[in-house]
Design a protein that fits this description.
6-stranded antiparallel sheet; alpha+beta; 7 helices
């Protein structure tokens, strides 16, 4: 086996990211591993000449390390897009469901990565499209959720929900969340959606503050296609991907969400039990 190539993505807004980065550099200094950082982050931490790589998403990598919380990890997955590099999260945020390495176990986990003591969990990805004037346009992928919501002080939205060819209902709400099982513990959870084991293959539809009382969260088949018709008359309507990328919508537009052809690849370790993580993060 040749030299392992690891791309490291530190969140420069986290105060302890530099110290964690130093631990990673020290650990790998005498091991046969090529480390790379995106050029901007490498400049920020003063190591551009040694580790900085322009257009790092195009550089071959065996794994990516994300230094931050779940938001940082989502951002790294987005940067790689269709290039399915496995991503391993080092949690220096507060609530990390996806980031699998805590700081007190960093070196032990890095050793496991070197010897192949991990597995890769394939997580369902969402693909979001907008239909406008009869034309469908791909907007992006999401690991957690695709959210249609009102911007600013806009009045509530009037939305039409269809699954596949069946129109289910029209309702008034502040918005709607289409989540993956991974995203069930993100925005959907705060809107009253159920918690789903992330290995389940399904899509979750959760209304945000529905004013139609018979609208409840829906768990649908992974192959179902969800259509959200925008019937509102006001202009300030957004569709957002993982809380990171937003696009403006117009009345009459239709957001279409389906399972993406590719999946997100998240690095996990054998001794991590999902329900133990759930208990630790949510109820302790």
């Amino acid at each position: 086996m040749g030299q392992m190539r690891i791309a490291v993505f530190p969140n420069v807004d986290k105060p302890n990211a530099g110290a964690v980065l130093d631990r990673i550099f020290r650990f790998f200094s005498e091991r046969d591993v090529q480390l790379m950082l995106p050029m901007d982050e490498a400049r920020f931490f003063g190591c551009a000449e040694t580790y900085g790589v322009e257009n790092i998403e195009q550089a071959p990598a065996d794994m990516a390390l994300s230094l931050g919380g779940d938001g940082t990890l989502l951002g790294v997955c987005h940067r790689y897009g269709r290039n399915e590099v496995p991503v391993c999260g080092i949690n220096i945020g507060t609530l990390g469901f996806m980031a699998d390495i805590e700081l007190d176990e960093l070196e032990d986990r890095l050793e496991k990565i070197l010897v192949g003591g991990y597995y890769i969990e394939q997580r369902l990805l969402l693909a979001g499209f907008v239909k406008s004037n009869g034309r469908e346009r791909f907007l992006g992928n999401a690991i957690n959720d695709v959210v249609v919501t009102k911007g600013g002080m806009a009045r509530m939205l009037r939305l039409g929900l269809s699954i596949n060819e069946t129109h289910l209902m029209d309702y008034k709400a502040d918005g709607i969340i289409v989540a993956s099982p991974t995203g069930s513990t993100a925005y959907s959870l705060s809107a009253g959606g159920p918690i789903m084991n992330p290995t389940i293959q399904a899509l979750l539809v959760t209304p945000i503050c529905a004013h139609t009382f018979n609208m409840r969260p829906l768990v649908v088949n992974e192959h179902d296609v969800i259509h959200i018709h925008i019937a509102a008359v006001h202009q300030d309507i957004l569709v957002t991907f993982d809380g990171q990328e937003s696009f403006h919508l117009l009345p009459g537009d239709e957001v279409v969400v389906r399972k993406a052809q590719q999946s997100a690849r998240i690095v996990k370790f054998e001794d991590q039990d999902y329900y133990r993580i759930l208990r630790t993060k949510l109820w302790n």
